[in-house]
Amino acid sequence: MSQTVLTKQAQDKVIPDDGSLDSGFELTAKDKVQLDIDDAPFLLDPEEETPPPAVVSERPLLTTEKPKEGKSKKKLLAVIVILTLVTAGIGTAVGLFVLKKTTPPPIQTAADTPPVVVVPSTPPPPPLPAEYNLKLAPFWVPVITPANEERFMVATFVLNTKDPVLYTEMQDKLTTLRDAIYYYMKNKDFAFLIDPDNAETIREDLVVAINHYLVQGELKNLYFDQYLLQ
After folding, report:
1. Which backbone phi and psi does 69 adopt, to 5 degrees?
2. 3-state DSSP call for residue 82?
3. CA dist., res. 189 & res. 37, Å (int)
């Protein structure tokens, strides 16, 4: 029925073409289509329809939030502080970079090289004593008693010094020093050797006999460690 109405309306609007243009007006196909669409809006494509204008409400939107002036100030202050710190950090980094570039590296010499400390695997020897004692092996000196008995004087002596060089020399000449002590006692008689009052004399004589063979110094002290008649 709609198509029948449209055809009838189109026939009423169409001007028959009699081949003359006396009116000076020409109807084109475009005008005809436009006319048909205006008379039949239901033929339009739904997608081509013009949407209705949006209704703008003149009433202001209601809001319950108040302007946060305090938070805005805090945010602004935080931004200023961050920008200050970033600027200071950039300046420090640039300064360090320039200082690193402009400062030449120190020239390391052999004197600047730390010495290499070698830790010994064995403990160091104990410190040398302030005095050096050289204990001699016992002397067995034969003697003849007044009763014409053959006995032995057994004597042990200790040579004492504070000079390490002299101590070394006495060790090197130990055989010579023992011979000097032995011949001294061998040439003394039985009464002289067993008299206690002669102990100091015997000590001094033995010191003189030993120093006769020493060249690095002089012996000062000699002690009796053992002295008896066997």
Report:
1. -70, -40
2. helix
3. 172
Q: Tell me the C-alpha distance between 220 and 211, whole Å.
A: 9
Of the candidates 155, 163, 228, the residue with the CA atom closest to the CA atom of residue 194: 228
Place of tokens 């200050």: 84
Under a CB-based contact definition with an 8 Å cutoff, are residues 180 and 213 in contact? yes
Measure the CA dihedral 18/19/24/30, to 10°: 90
The more confidently predicted of residues 208 and 91 is 208
Of all helices (H) and strands (E), which one includes residue 140?
Answer: strand 139-144
CA distance 220 to 160: 7
**pLDDT tens digits, one per residue of 160-192:** 999 999 999 999 999 999 999 999 999 999 999
How many whole angstroms separate alpha carbon 119 and alpha carbon 194?
Answer: 57
pTM for the model stands at 0.45
Mean pLDDT over 193-204 rounds to 93
Amino acid at 200: E
- List, for residues 40-57, the tens digit of each pLDDT value: 555 555 555 555 555 545
Contact 157/181 with Cβ under 8 angstroms?
yes
Planar angle of CA 65, 69, 71, nearest 5 degrees: 90
Distance CA 197, CA 191 (A): 11
The DSSP element (H or E) to which 60 belongs, if any, is none
